[in-house]
Amino acid sequence: MVLNCGAYKMRKCWQEIVKCIPYRPHAAVYNRAHVLFERNDTRGFTPEEDETLKKYHEKYGNKWKKIAVLMGKSRLHVKDNWRRIKLGNPKAGKWVQKEYQDLYDLVNMDLKMKVYCEKKSKHGMLRDNIPWGAISEKLSTRSDARCCVKWYKLRSPLVAQGLWSDTDDYLMIGKLYELDAACADDVDWDNLLEHRTGDICRKRWDQMVKHIGDYGSKPFAEQVDILAERYSPDLAEDREAWDNKPVVP
Fold first, then answer.
1. What is the C-alpha separation between 188 and 185, in angstroms, rounded?
2. Where is the Myb-like domain (predicted)?
3. Residue 247 and residue 25: Cα distance in Å, rounded?
4. How far is Cα 36 from Cα 230, in angstroms, rounded to an integer?
5. What's the rounded Cα separation, in Å, for the pair 142 and 84?
6. 159/162 Cα distance (integer angstroms)
7. Which of 81, 100, 119, 157 is the most exposed place for a label (fewest CB within 10 A)?
8. Residue 203 and residue 186: Cα distance in Å, rounded?
9. At residue 94, what are phi and psi to the nearest 5 degrees?
């Protein structure tokens, strides 16, 4: 009854339920309830259920709620499984450099588009509110979960410590690209970013270089070029604008 409150005299019930869990946004509570109450005894999807899902999707399209009822599954699990089917057999293991670059290009494009949108509080529990499903489909080699995990692994742990910001990545690479230094020792790290110490800048640089493959054999200038493609300097303003955008209800 709660999951179909619109059909009963319970239209406002979710507002009351959410009040009991104030540290979670409305959408998170609602979606979690559907997962818990719609979940059946068997986890995952069998090959036969995959085929059934394909037939239902061909007939009903993206009407996940209807398909979920027919299959006795959570609509969220049905939708996630359809993404897996569409992706085929996603790769596992080490990422190649093209995948890294494609991931950065897709997330950067999403960021650039979001600068012109409102930053809504209902997305507060979603880090950056990045559409990983859509990004996974365009990347075509990794699942949405793997894309999400990989992206945040690339993020500096210094951010959580308050010693660095995501915007600083773009600013630092932009400065290094302009310098055109022959090696790391040519860089005046202490004066690279006026709001960050040289030690912190160098520490973040070392972290970033670890994710460009066989970094030990690449010259410094080439490392900067590779990272400038990922952290496009012209996106620094967009990244900062999004981070500083006020949250609206």
1. 8
2. 45-86, 91-155, 156-209
3. 14
4. 39
5. 9
6. 5
7. 157
8. 16
9. -65, 135
Q: Beta-carbon neighbour count of residue 224 at 10 Å?
A: 22
Other C-beta atoms closer than 10 Å to the C-beta of 199 total 11
Q: What is the DSSP letter of 22?
A: T
Helix (H, G, I), strand (E, B) or coil at 248: strand
In three-state secondary structure terms, 120 is strand
Contact 166, 159 (CB under 8 A): yes
Strand locations in the chain, DSSP E?
119-120, 247-248
Task: Assess contact for 179 and 187: CB atoms under 8 A.
Answer: yes
Cβ proximity of 224 and 176 under 8 Å: yes
The answer to whether residues 83 and 144 touch, using CB atoms and an 8 Å cutoff, is yes
Among residues 200, 170, 162, the alpha carbon closest in space to that of 104 is found at: 170
Kindly report, residue by residue over 50-76, the tens digit of the pLDDT: 899 889 888 988 888 899 889 888 777
- Residue 240: partners with Cβ closer than 8 Å, 6 or more residues away: 167
Residues 233, 177: contact at Cβ < 8 Å? yes
Instruction: Tell me whether residue 135 is exposed, middle or buried, using C-beta atoms within 10 angstroms of its C-beta: 0 to 12, 13 to 18, 19 or more.
Output: buried
Domains of the chain: 1-38 (no CATH), 41-86 (1.10.10.60), 97-154 (no CATH), 157-242 (no CATH)
Angle between helices 75-87 and 26-38 (to 10 degrees): 90
pLDDT beneath 70: ranges in the chain: 1-12, 14, 22-32, 34-43, 87-90, 116, 118-127, 215-216, 247-249
Token pair of 150, please? Answer: 């990989």
Opening angle at CA 85, ends 81 and 90, nearest 5: 105
Indicate the length of the chain as a whole number.
Answer: 249
